[in-house]
Amino acid sequence: MITSEIIGTGSYVPEKIVSNDDLSKIMDTNDEWIQSRSGISERRVSQGEDTSDLSVKAAIKAMEAANVVATDIDLIIVATVTPDMYTPSTACIVQKKIEAYNATAFDVSAACSGFLYGVSIANSMIKTGQHKTVLVIGAEVLSKAINWEDRATAVLFGDGAGAVIMKASENRGVKGIYTMSEGDKGENLEIGAKEVKNPFLDEKVDNSKYNYIAMNGREVFKFATKAMVTAVEKILLETKEDLCNIKCIIPHQANYRIIQYVSKKMDIPIEHFYINLDKYANTSAATIPIALDEAVRVGRIKKGDKIILVGFGGGLTYGAALIEW
Ligand code: COA
């Protein structure tokens, strides 16, 4: 059966490290609160690089690892909720910067689940034969969407990018992907866009929107724990796979307590999860590909290993993929 496999990974985070103590100098917070509530110690913050810049750096590493050149790529998908612009898409900007002139390029907006959604689209495109060599990127500059006066959200997010190259495969690779959305719960995690404003607007209509992250933390926490468990169960069912055969789980890196909950609820040792949120905080669509890249490079994932990627996020959205490496 034709499926798709990841043949190379790459990631990039900005150099600037902002610790919890650094944050406590600009807002009413402290290291103890942030660590105990989330497990985060520090995050990377852009010094001017935009989402396409981080994407390009991650993409180049993934291309090197996969041993492909830019002109081999025929599809570029960038998952992001912090694009450089409304248009062109970040994917088109990346295409220009890496000179991948043979590609179709577009963005996917599924917040922290975006990378999984991107892998799902790439997998389907490869299976139908429509595309052969796909670059999937998850990248965010969330620091430009953070309300730096809202301590409840500002401490949780960071900037970064991760990328993979996917190709057709006859045996190894993606064994199954499950994605789901619950749009009725979307208001629990929002980043507003431009408000509706035109010369013909009824002045009485309230269209005011904020263009920074706003979150109902408790509701998202409840959703996240349920969504992660559901997604893992669904993907195991779909692939007829047993949890005890899964070598490594790469979860969305939002909060250590959410991962701990899933670990206990599903009786999965916490060591089976690859966790790096202490260093980078929640980089939304980028957390899974950054963690995947790190796990591959440090030898946590080896050829033949069965792994699960699982995430949740704004939308609200969630999903999981089971991959044989
Ligand atoms: N530093 C210090 N105190 C803070 C703070 C901060 N950065 N942020 C909030 N607080 C305060 C609150 O004001 C509140 O004070 P009060 O009791 O005097 O009103 C107190 O800490 C408790 O806040 P609460 O919201 O009850 O904390 P919590 O235990 O629910 O944890 C989150 C908050 C956000 C860490 C938690 O709800 C969470 O992780 N949710 C999921 C978020 C997530 O994963 N989002 C990304 C999805 S992709």
UniProtKB/TrEMBL annotation:
Subunit and partners: Homodimer.
EC number(s) per entry: 2.3.1.180
Q: Where in the cell is it found?
A: Cytoplasm
A Pfam family of the record is: ACP_syn_III
**HAMAP family tied to this protein:** FabH
Q: In which pathway does it act?
A: Lipid metabolism; fatty acid biosynthesis
Question: What keywords appear on the UniProt entry?
Answer: Acyltransferase, Cytoplasm, Fatty acid biosynthesis, Fatty acid metabolism, Lipid biosynthesis, Lipid metabolism, Multifunctional enzyme, Transferase
What is written about domains in the entry's comments? The last Arg residue of the ACP-binding site is essential for the weak association between ACP/AcpP and FabH.
Q: Which residues form the Beta-ketoacyl-[acyl-carrier-protein] synthase III N-terminal domain?
A: 106-176
Q: Does the keyword Acyltransferase apply?
A: yes
**The Beta-ketoacyl-[acyl-carrier-protein] synthase III C-terminal domain, residue ranges:** 245-325
Annotated region (ACP-binding) at 253-257
An annotated GO cellular component of this protein is: cytoplasm
Give the active-site positions. Answer: 112, 252, 282
A molecular function (GO) held by this record is:
3-oxoacyl-[acyl-carrier-protein] synthase activity
InterPro entries for the chain: ACP_syn_III_C (IPR013747), ACP_syn_III_N (IPR013751), FabH (IPR004655), Thiolase-like (IPR016039)
What high-level taxonomic lineage is stated for the organism? Answer: Bacteria, Bacillati, Bacillota, Clostridia, Eubacteriales
**Does the record's keyword annotation contain Ribosomal protein?**
no
Protein task: Catalyzes the condensation reaction of fatty acid synthesis by the addition to an acyl acceptor of two carbons from malonyl-ACP. Catalyzes the first condensation reaction which initiates fatty acid synthesis and may therefore play a role in governing the total rate of fatty acid production. Possesses both acetoacetyl-ACP synthase and acetyl transacylase activities. Its substrate specificity determines the biosynthesis of branched-chain and/or straight-chain of fatty acids.
What this protein catalyses is: 2-methylpropanoyl-CoA + malonyl-[ACP] + H(+) = 4-methyl-3-oxopentanoyl-[ACP] + CO2 + CoA; (2S)-2-methylbutanoyl-CoA + malonyl-[ACP] + H(+) = (4S)-4-methyl-3-oxohexanoyl-[ACP] + CO2 + CoA; malonyl-[ACP] + acetyl-CoA + H(+) = 3-oxobutanoyl-[ACP] + CO2 + CoA; 3-methylbutanoyl-CoA + malonyl-[ACP] + H(+) = 5-methyl-3-oxohexanoyl-[ACP] + CO2 + CoA
Q: Which domain of life is it from?
A: Bacteria
Q: Which organism is it from?
A: Clostridium cellulovorans (strain ATCC 35296 / DSM 3052 / OCM 3 / 743B)
Give the protein's recorded name: Beta-ketoacyl-[acyl-carrier-protein] synthase III
What family is this?
A: Belongs to the thiolase-like superfamily. FabH family.
Question: Which SUPFAM superfamilies does UniProt cross-reference here?
Answer: Thiolase-like (SSF53901)
The GO annotation for biological process reads: fatty acid biosynthetic process
